[in-house]
Each structure stands twice: as structure tokens, then as C-alpha cells.
Amino acid sequence: MIFDEKTIADKATYDNPHQYPVGISSVFVNGKLTFADGQMNNVRNGQALKLN
Predict the structure, then answer these.
(1) pTM value > 0.85
(2) Which residues, other chains included, contact 9 with Cβ-Cβ below 8 Å and sequence gap of 6+?
């Protein structure tokens, strides 16, 4: 994750919970770019961990 520590903030509220935070420019999962320029790019590189 690449972020700006001075501007990172959560924008979600109880009335509007599905909001991206601000201040995060890029997210990498397993070395591949997954989120950039405020948009998901539909790359799925991770796996869900399941309880045994």
C-alpha cells in the first residue's frame, strides 16, 4: 500500500458505508497492482483464509 500519511482518512459513514478512503494512491496484492488512481482494476491475486 502506498499512502500519504498527511491526507489518509476514512470517508465511510453509517449512512454511506461503502466509500473508499482518501490518501491511498496504490495497493499491491502479491506484487500486482490492484488499486490505483481511486479505482479497483479487478485483479484478484490473493486468497481468502478459512478457519479449520
Answers:
(1) no
(2) 21, 22, 23
Return the residue matching grid coordinates 453509517.
14
Q: How does pLDDT run across 39-48, given as a tens digit for each residue?
A: 888 888 888 8
What is the rounded CA–CA span in Å between residue 9 and residue 18?
14
DSSP strand E in 1-52: where?
A: 2-3, 24-29, 32-36, 39-40
Residue 20 is classified by DSSP as: P
Which three cell numbers mark 10? 476514512
Distance separating alpha carbons of residues 46 and 4, to the nearest angstrom: 24
Per-chain mean pLDDT for the chain: 88
